């Protein structure tokens, strides 16, 4: 355990870097308490063993401050939360993790608790970056969580391996209706110039083949044992319910291991007759949270033409997960790592005929079920020309800004979205 604590302390060797943050300086109480609890961490860890009561008392102090800031983060609307409160939450999370490990009586349980704290801090806090010896920047909680995960692996007991997911799942191509003459062009490894002129500049969708074949993810991610080895103990937000626009939708935090075992490797999870509600890891910054998975993919060259820092999102779930017909404000390359999805597209010009929800939270989402439109309720939808396609393993769909798209998994599926300008 001492090696683990030393490694985490080394992430911020000079604790004054925390005390000199603006969010700490402006609050005298926070500054005083943090100064008191950080001072012992600058000394040898032997003091933890000889002065355990003092370390336990400091953990209580940190816990009280942590709870106060946590409650402030959950008061009012999220977009109104002060960035200083989020940054303070990150600092308190880091310090609480160190003290949790210092007073540990069970190494494995303490490391698991610390990983949960780090993930919660990553989701609710504000990134605090530091320069390392290679002049690159790393976020302190991202590095802390990775360090904890590596040390936990030393204690892990061997479990029976899970079966690899099949890559040859048979799925039917979606055939357009008689009134639909629209087809999405399919191109193999187009040049950056060709993609730019024919699709990006004209804002026309296209299926791109052969551009992600070299990703390590293509060979690794369909093996749940590989995913669990890297991310099993991490906590992620999971959507529960048929789709986010329905009343039965909710969210909860789950261990990645539990999500995979219950929803990806459990055959009943993909059985429509089962009682289990759909669970989906959707639109999540998984690759910022877990850099080891980020190393398995690469940003397609087409994006670098206009955007050096695309936003990368993960979509991982069983058969039957649905994203209802909606729009996004940016360009999107949807990369299918394994599994297959039916996708239905509609032009931005048809927006009024697709009856967007009136509430501002859902005004980018249509009330029309793209698979089975109710023309009695939504008569103008008859005039919409839909593009229908099936996206298979290894294929990439370019979705231009403001294009409507409905997405449904036809099998267990892992997709990666690159949102870019």
TrEMBL record:
Entry keywords, A to Z: Iron, Metal-binding, Nucleus, Oxidoreductase
Domain JmjC: from-to ranges: 279-421
GO molecular function: histone H3K36 demethylase activity; metal ion binding
SUPFAM superfamilies: Clavaminate synthase-like (SSF51197)
Primary localization: nucleus
Cofactor(s) listed: Fe(2+)
Superkingdom of the organism of origin: Eukaryota
Subcellular localization(s) per the UniProt record: Nucleus
Gene Ontology CC annotation, any one: nucleus
Keyword Oxidoreductase applies: yes
Protein known as: JmjC domain-containing protein
Source species: Anopheles stephensi (Indo-Pakistan malaria mosquito)
Taxonomic lineage from the root: Eukaryota, Metazoa, Ecdysozoa, Arthropoda, Hexapoda
């Amino acid at each position: 355990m001492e090696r683990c604590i030393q490694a985490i302390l080394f992430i911020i060797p000079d604790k004054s870097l925390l005390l000199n943050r603006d969010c700490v300086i402006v609050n005298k109480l926070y500054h005083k308490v943090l100064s008191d609890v950080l001072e012992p961490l600058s000394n040898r860890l032997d003091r933890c063993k000889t002065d355990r009561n003092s370390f336990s008392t400091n953990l209580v102090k940190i816990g009280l401050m942590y709870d106060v800031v946590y409650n402030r983060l959950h008061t009012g609307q999220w977009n109104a939360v002060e960035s200083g409160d989020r940054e303070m939450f990150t600092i308190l999370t880091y310090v609480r993790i160190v003290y949790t490990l210092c007073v540990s009586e069970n190494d494995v349980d303490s490391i698991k608790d610390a990983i949960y704290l780090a993930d919660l801090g990553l989701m609710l806090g504000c990134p605090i970056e530091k320069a390392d010896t290679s002049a690159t920047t790393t976020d302190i909680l991202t590095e802390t969580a990775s360090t904890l995960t590596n040390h936990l692996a030393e204690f892990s007991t061997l479990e029976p391996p899970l079966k690899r997911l099949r890559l040859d799942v048979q799925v039917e191509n979606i055939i357009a209706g008689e009134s639909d003459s629209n087809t999405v062009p399919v191109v193999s490894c187009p040049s950056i110039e060709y993609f730019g002129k024919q699709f990006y500049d004209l804002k026309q969708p296209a299926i791109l083949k052969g551009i992600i074949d070299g990703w390590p993810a293509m060979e690794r991610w369909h093996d749940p044992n590989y995913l669990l080895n890297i991310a099993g103990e991490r906590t992620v937000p999971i959507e529960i319910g048929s789709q986010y626009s329905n009343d039965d939708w909710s969210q909860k935090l789950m261990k990645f291991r539990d999500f995979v075992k219950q929803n990806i490797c459990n055959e009943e999870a993909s059985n429509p007759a089962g009682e289990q509600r759909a669970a989906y890891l959707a639109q999540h910054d998984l690759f910022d949270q877990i850099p080891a998975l980020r190393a398995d993919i690469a940003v397609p060259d087409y994006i670098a033409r206009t955007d050096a820092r695309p936003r990368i999102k993960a979509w991982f779930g069983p058969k039957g997960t649905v994203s209802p017909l909606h729009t996004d404000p940016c360009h999107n390359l949807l990369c299918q790592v394994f599994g297959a999805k039916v996708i239905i597209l509609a032009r931005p010009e048809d927006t009024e005929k697709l009856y967007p929800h009136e509430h501002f939270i859902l005004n980018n989402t249509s009330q029309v079920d793209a698979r089975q439109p109710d023309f009695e309720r939504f008569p103008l939808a008859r005039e919409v020309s839909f593009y229908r396609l099936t996206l298979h393993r290894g294929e990439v769909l370019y979705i231009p800004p403001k294009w409507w798209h409905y997405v449904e998994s036809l099998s267990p599926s892992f997709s990666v979205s690159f949102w870019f300008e």
